[in-house]
Design a protein that fits this description.
Blueprint: E1 8-11, H1 19-33, E2 38-42, H2 48-53, E3 57-60, H3 68-85, E4 89-92, H4 95-107, E5 113-118, H5 127-133, E6 142-144, H6 147-157, E7 164-166, H7 183-192, E8 201-205, H8 214-223, E9 230-234, H9 239-251, E10 258-262, H10 267-273, E11 276-279, H11 289-296, E12 301-304, H12 309-312, E13 319-322, H13 327-339, H14 341-358, H15 361-377
Parallel strand pairs: 1-2, 1-4, 2-3, 4-5, 5-6, 6-7, 8-9, 8-11, 9-10, 11-12, 12-13
Helix pairs in contact: 3-4, 7-10, 8-9, 8-13, 11-14
């Protein structure tokens, strides 16, 4: 590794399969390509092996623990890591890890630079929560993962706009490449998800929780005038939400036309095989990678008109935007999308071009790396 480059430590609670975790692994890989030695501390998880494959030094540490005593204990351990490994930048991606990392920077002899990335809108309804959140703003610069989050940081916390680096999330175009999905794969995925005999396949991908709004999609599909579709619900999640969805599907008599597929790893092929991908979040997505993953595979998206979707989807050009928690509007969008297959295909092509021009993982990493450069020169 190049000894003239900064040595970087990333902190996050765990290595699950969400946007925070994938962003960490993508940055680790990017740093390795630049011959920059880097470390990551977390409680582990499904993305641990991909992280290790980048050559990153992994530190097993439950930095997501929120109790004051746990934060202080983690800070002391991280201070030793900083000194022992001559860390130059501590990059925290969540609040509890940020508190431990910020304290560790102060406790260590080396006194490295501190940096955070805002990956979401944190609850801020009272003074205690705002104080807890404030650790994310203790750096010379802060990274925002979308314009929505940037504006939130400015409006809620009064943080100076000139100290925010905008780094929209990006899609891995090597992985999400429609040319790599064969016609046979598409046909196989469609069959597995229940879309036979050329039926339009509508797909929603993501964790099954209340705020993702799956029930509105089931209701909308039932209300849509077009009855040729098949709906696939892909993702794992809350057992109560899954049970409620199954009950709603049965109540509406949609058992033969809705597949609750559970978690799958072939998301690029699913996106390519779908005619429409839907995001029905009732709360604003900080960014929402699902939309750009579908778009770059040439599949238009129907999404709720708030949060990151307002940045990633051009209404009527690359997809459709509808009010949140509104099954009637969603049904109308489904009918409009399926009414003209030629227009839908053209929208998919426009969607892919839009993502390639604005939301690739390389663009994301270059912007986030510029924050490292900024804190080193601050």
């Amino acid at each position: 590794m190049d000894k003239t480059q900064p040595r970087i430590l990333q902190l996050l609670p765990a290595l699950g399969d969400g946007g925070v975790e994938r962003g960490t692994v993508e940055m680790a890989s990017y740093l390795a390509r630049k011959h920059i030695e880097n470390w990551a501390a977390s409680a582990g998880g499904p993305l641990l092996e991909p992280l290790k494959d980048t050559g990153t030094h992994y530190i097993p540490l439950e930095v997501g623990r929120k109790s004051p005593l746990a934060i202080l204990a983690n800070a002391r351990k991280l201070a030793r890591v900083i000194d022992d490994n001559r860390i130059d930048i501590v990059h925290a991606r969540s609040r509890a890890p940020a508190w431990a990392g910020w304290l560790a920077c102060r406790l260590s002899r080396r006194k490295p630079r501190f940096l955070t990335t805002f990956h979401g809108v944190y609850s801020h309804g009272n003074g205690f929560k705002r104080t807890y959140n404030n650790v994310m703003l203790k750096a010379p610069v802060v990274v925002a993962n979308s314009a929505f989050i940037r504006d939130h940081i400015i409006s809620v916390y009064g943080f100076p706009a000139e100290r925010i680096i905008l780094s929209p999330r990006g899609v891995d175009t090597a992985l999400f490449d429609p040319a790599k999905v064969s016609d046979e794969q598409r046909a196989s995925v469609r069959e597995e998800l229940g879309a036979e005999d050329g039926a339009p396949l509508i797909t929603i991908v993501g964790r099954l929780t209340d705020w993702k709004g799956h029930r509105y999609l089931v209701e909308a599909a039932d209300r849509a005038a077009n009855k040729t579709w098949h709906l696939a619900i892909v993702g794992s999640g809350n057992e109560g939400v899954i049970a409620d969805l199954k009950a709603l599907v049965a109540e509406r008599g949609l058992g033969a036309r809705v597949t609750i597929a559970g978690s799958r790893r072939d998301i690029p092929a699913i996106m390519a095989a779908s005619d429409l991908v839907v995001s029905t979040s009732t709360r604003p997505e900080a960014f929402g990678r699902v939309a750009i993953e579908a778009e770059v595979m040439g599949t238009p998206v129907i999404a709720t008109a708030h949060g990151g979707s307002l940045e990633t989807i051009i209404d009527g050009e690359t997809g459709f935007l509808v009010p949140p928690a509104n099954a009637d509007a969603l049904a109308e969008a489904i009918d409009a999308a399926l009414a003209d297959p030629a227009r839908l295909k053209a929208m998919g092509q426009a969607a892919r071009a839009h993502v390639l021009a604005n939301f690739t993982v390389e663009m994301m990493l270059e912007k986030e790396f510029s924050a490292y450069e900024a804190v080193m020169s601050a």
